[in-house]
Amino acid sequence: MSDVRFDSALDNLIGSLAEKVPELLADGIIIRDLYGKLRIVVNADAPEVERLDKLSAPVWIELGAYGRFDGRHILGTDDFFDPDLMLHDPDIVEYVPAGTNWSARILDRQVTGQDWARAAAKGSHPTRVAFYGLKGGVGRSTALVMEAYHLGTLGKNVLLIDFDLESPGLSGILLPFSELPEVGIVDWFVEDAVGQSAPIVERMAALSPISQMPGMRGSVRIVPAFGIDEHDYLAKLSRSFVDVPRAAGGVEGFGARARRMIEALETAYKPDVVLIDARAGLHDLAAVSIVGLADSVLMFAVDTDQTWQGYKLLFSHWMERPSVLFSVRNKIVMIHAMFPEEDQSRRTRSFIEHSHELFTSTIYETEDETGAEVFNYDLMDTDAPHYPHRVFWNKRFLEFSSTLFADGTLGDDFISATFGELFQCIDERLPGGRQ
Questions:
Q1: pTM of this prediction?
Q2: What is the pLDDT of residues 117-135, one digit of tens each?
Q3: Which option is the CATH number for 120-427: 3.30.470.20, 2.30.30.40, 1.10.645.10, 3.40.50.300?
């Protein structure tokens, strides 16, 4: 079947195994390599592997190029120096082909994008909120800054993380260049790779001048992508995503390293709330923020076909990986960004309908005959993740800078009118609820 393509190869393999060799589907781990080719690892010795390889021979022929190897298609414990590392790899996830009841364990080897399928480990930490958008230019970073200001007026100590490493700029909004800290996030990653990140953690954050404003009862600190004396940023950035060896064996990926960094920063600065400026798009940096770090994810969107198509790509990816989906779906909060001044009733309805359609076609569950509780919400349910909180468009924020605070351009009433729904949304997610 030479016409088999990447899109169908994995699902075809799972279907063939379910029909012809169900024991392999139940007990094996499907490995999809960097080219999309497929093999299976089993916890078995050489004679059993040989038997399974012969038994499954017809399955691989049906996969065309994606099932074509010179050697065996079934690998066992004798094929690995440390089989436990392979059999218990943390990147193994459950995969369910769309429209089926089949389930398989897969290990998807990818150059990038692995962190979209790495669910975060549970743990105790300050409230973390990620600000995310598929595209730039929707006011995400400005909204984050205003949220930090709002939380500061409530007496919260806020730590802002500029995790948009490939387009850094959060520090430029809230910090004069002369007040940048000594080092930034890329410095932590390159020093961590050689085992010396601990000493620089307390030199990574700087106090924003807005912390000194009247009415501020808390503090706002920024962890920028780079420090004040940066001169080789691109060289550091290119090395930030490498996996590093673990002392106990194996390697530690970028997502796990990012979690360690955030935990070290939280220990050093003791914030009440951590706000993460996630990279736009479908990059690993966004994946780490959304899947691996945040308790809540504000997904900024404007009501365009491009927006909904992009989010559907992401939601569909999770839909086929239930273990990841279950850890992510309750984090999602839709934000109707740049909400217009005119025709507001119609535009609100249009956004809600498109958002509900997105969720219904992907991550909302279908009610079954047993009446069991399912993850599903009505169109106009204001508590639903698809139901948006609005950030209103205003030309004063098109070229936003912290000087607008100092010169009195931004009054509290004006800020509340623009960002009030966002503030309330996050307030309700803090310990103790609405402040």
A1: 0.79
A2: 455 555 688 999 999 988 8
A3: 3.40.50.300
